[in-house]
Amino acid sequence: MNRHQDPNPFEEEVNPFSNGAGAPGSKSRIPQMSSEPVGFGQRHDATVDIPLDVTTDSKKKGQELAAWEADLKRREKDFDSFKMYTQEIKRREEAVAKAGVPVDDKNWPPFFPIIHHDIANEIPVHAQRLQYLAFASWLGIVLCLVFNVVAVIVCWIRGGGSKIFFLAVIYALLGVPLSYVLWYRPLYRAMSTDSALKFGWFFLFYLIHIAFCIFAAIAPPVVFHGKSLTGILAAIDVFSDHVLVGIFYLVGFGLFCLEALLSLWVLQKIYLYFRGHK
């Protein structure tokens, strides 16, 4: 067998560095690469879908976060305001304690203290005169109601009946504390703290107080029973039976009239003070 005539399987030489061109008459076994770029922007690119719910949820979460931050800032501001308020109250209490002024210490009346009353130390100097006038008005209604009980007791002893006595006692037991709580104490607070709300509360119930004084001075037998108030009509009625009882009732009538006039004057003075001071 002639070895030189056998075909050589490695006869075809391929140069990998020949830029795709093989030897003449030979075929390249390396596949040709496509020069068309593959990537974004081509017509055969894949489409990426971004769901709209993601964007909507992001905006909603951003709005909720902004609202939460605003609420947090508001709460912080309210807390700071409350803290400053408590510090101011504490500072005032310390100042009062250093000044030696007792806070709501019962000191009146001196023989049996049941209320706190200190105009000279707690009311401004320019308002002390008005406060003393209002205090005189409150003492006046106390005197009127106490004397009304005394006059009715005299009438009861002379045969006037026990019902008018119990009614007179009820007027005194209710009128004295209610007048202090409803209009005198609010005026005291208004003068010391310069509170418009307290002034309004005082004007409302002080008008009711004046109306009661006028009604008691007349004493018509429509709401209150008979002679339970020492008014002019009741005084005329009892004069025909007992002159002594009539005199007591006339004195009570005069006291209620004086109290009504004094209350009207005090109301005018305090109203002018309130308008001018504000």
Automatic annotation (TrEMBL):
Q: Which UniProt keywords apply?
A: Cell membrane, Cytoplasmic vesicle, Membrane, Transmembrane, Transmembrane helix, Transport
Q: How does it sit in the membrane?
A: Multi-pass membrane protein
Among its keywords, does the record have Cell membrane? yes
Task: Give me the segments passing through the membrane.
Answer: 132-159, 165-184, 196-223, 243-267
Looking at the record, which segments are called Disordered? 1-55
Q: Name one GO biological process term.
A: protein transport
Q: Which family does it belong to?
A: Belongs to the SCAMP family.
Function statement = Probably involved in membrane trafficking.
Annotated protein name in UniProt: Secretory carrier-associated membrane protein
Name the species this protein comes from.
Arachis hypogaea
